[in-house]
Amino acid sequence: MGVMADIELVRGDITEQEVDVVVNAANSSLLGGGGVDGAIHRKGGPEILAECRKLRAGHHGKGLKTGQAVATTAGRLPARWVVHAVGPVWSQAEDRSSLLADCHRNSLAVAAELGAATIAFPAISTGVYRWPVEDAARIAIAAVNDSDTSRFSIIRFVLFDQRAYDAFHNALP
Ligand code: ADP
To answer: For position 49, what pLDDT does the model report?
Structure first.
């Protein structure tokens, strides 16, 4: 039995977090999008997209599969790295919960490999990908609590609005 991760919740903007790793709610192309992705590239500058393009030209020629995560520089963000994680699009017909959990587990694993001790997540899949935020919060918190988080001193969820904040607050153990 592991010790439960000490999860921090804040209302705010993921691009302003002074942490080792900021997780991006990316899409499989890795070439930018709206929401969190747009904000990260806008504030982080062109260096992030340049590294994403290199990933597409190399090991990730077809882009990134749903549930997977990969790191780049954080450019001008006050973080050291961005870990781009691809969340699943919400589906009523199919249970994609394990892919949403994978996103969180794989982001933590990539961050650990980088040597990160502090990490901030947005509410992955709850924007353009339409995942109901109460359900996404439950899955995200459970995935973090099921992971080995012993190396992390901060695991923070950064929630853009009060509804998301309340959902994550209610999902805490
Ligand atoms: P996805 O495509 O995975 O649904 P989005 O970026 O569209 O990702 O939205 C994910 C969540 O992030 C939504 O709850 C949205 O309100 C929130 N969000 C949007 N911009 C930011 C930001 N700058 N910082 C933190 N959260 C944000």
So the answer is: 97
Q: What percent of the chain has pLDDT over 90?
A: 94
Gap between the Cα atoms of 7 and 88, Å rounded: 23
CA 27 vs CA 11, 62, 74, 99, 173: distances in Å: 23, 12, 17, 13, 30
What mean pLDDT do residues 16-23 have?
98
How crowded is the C-beta side of 17, counted as CA atoms within 13 Å?
33
Locate the domains of the chain by residue range: 7-171
Which atom of ligand 1 is nearest to 158's Cα? 25
Band the pLDDT of 3: cuts 50, 70, 90: low
Nearest residue by C-alpha to atom 1 in ligand 1: 125
pLDDT at 1: 41
The fold adopted by the segment(s) 7-171 is Leucine Aminopeptidase, subunit E; domain 1 (3.40.220)
**Residue list, ligand 1 pocket, CB within 6 Å:** 13-15, 25, 34-37, 39, 87, 122-129, 158, 160, 164
- pLDDT greater than 80 at residue 2: no
